[in-house]
Amino acid sequence: MEQAAEASALPPGLLEERGDARLHIGGLVRKPGWQVFNVKPGEHVDHVGDLRDLSRFGDASFDMVYASHVFEHLGHRTDLPRALREVARILRTGGRFFVSVPNLKTLCTLFAHPEVSDQQRQTLMQMMYGGQDDEHDFHYVGLWDWYLANHLASAGFADIYWVQTFGFFDDTSNWRLGESFISLNLIAVK
Question: Which domains, and CATH codes, for the chain?
Answer without folding.
Answer: 7-189 (3.40.50.150)
